[in-house]
């Protein structure tokens, strides 16, 4: 339990920005800038932040759907970034992804049975036949769908059902690690809880580890063991769920937590309003990236980038004033 299943070390992903008649590279979008964390077996790490902060880029870079600019990713001690094509094909069986949009991630011309069976056939695990049909029905039922849904097409399902199909497809090769890229953000609130509970039940049953990406702290609080907060391509805080909600250290984390609605109308809390616009990822501000919006900004924040350091009990933060 103490050994990390996945280790991410100094991961960077820069996208080139081109301009001019000859489309020369004139800059880079620093989508993920020096990211480090680890995920243990049966653990869920939640990754939160505003839209465009680089959350999805990190998930896709770990799986090499985007080739990282630099850094290392280790899965069960194997270097994913330096893996050959054949080695990567083997790792694909153990590292899967559930996409944000449950409709666009499913081929509309394929039936549910064909969608779920495709990875099994491509990896040569089973050929078309009775055993494969039984495996498809088993996965559908495990994800809360009926066996007779096999011959239906994606457009015949609701959004929640389509996301269950996406989860079933991710489970076909018996993975140990799944990147869940905002899997419930496109669903109704009532359906969100059903899908989250399904993912938690599957984690308990199959021993899965998740990197759960979301912009909703309430959702992340429900499913995660630890939470990482991102801002402009960088991790600004990382700690256990309880510690983060009860004792946030970074001003950006405090602002996010203050924006969560209270269920009790009589209970009021002071909301932290961030002023100014989010800086550009192409030309981020010097020093701390958050200093242009921080209500506690100091002179050192404008000059020196804060170190991502541990304050105690595995609570990491990148802030000059954090204690």
TrEMBL record:
<comment type="similarity">
    <text>Belongs to the ABC transporter superfamily.</text>
</comment>
<protein>
    <submittedName>
        <fullName>Peptide/nickel transport system ATP-binding protein</fullName>
    </submittedName>
</protein>
<keyword id="KW-0067">ATP-binding</keyword>
<dbReference type="Pfam" id="PF00005">
    <property type="entry name" value="ABC_tran"/>
</dbReference>
<dbReference type="InterPro" id="IPR017871">
    <property type="entry name" value="ABC_transporter-like_CS"/>
</dbReference>
<keyword id="KW-0547">Nucleotide-binding</keyword>
<dbReference type="Pfam" id="PF08352">
    <property type="entry name" value="oligo_HPY"/>
</dbReference>
<dbReference type="InterPro" id="IPR027417">
    <property type="entry name" value="P-loop_NTPase"/>
</dbReference>
<feature type="domain" description="ABC transporter">
    <location>
        <begin position="6"/>
        <end position="257"/>
    </location>
</feature>
<dbReference type="InterPro" id="IPR003439">
    <property type="entry name" value="ABC_transporter-like_ATP-bd"/>
</dbReference>
<dbReference type="GO" id="GO:0005524">
    <property type="term" value="F:ATP binding"/>
</dbReference>
<dbReference type="GO" id="GO:0016887">
    <property type="term" value="F:ATP hydrolysis activity"/>
</dbReference>
<dbReference type="GO" id="GO:0055085">
    <property type="term" value="P:transmembrane transport"/>
</dbReference>
<dbReference type="InterPro" id="IPR050319">
    <property type="entry name" value="ABC_transp_ATP-bind"/>
</dbReference>
<dbReference type="InterPro" id="IPR003593">
    <property type="entry name" value="AAA+_ATPase"/>
</dbReference>
<dbReference type="InterPro" id="IPR013563">
    <property type="entry name" value="Oligopep_ABC_C"/>
</dbReference>
<keyword id="KW-0813">Transport</keyword>
<dbReference type="GO" id="GO:0015833">
    <property type="term" value="P:peptide transport"/>
</dbReference>
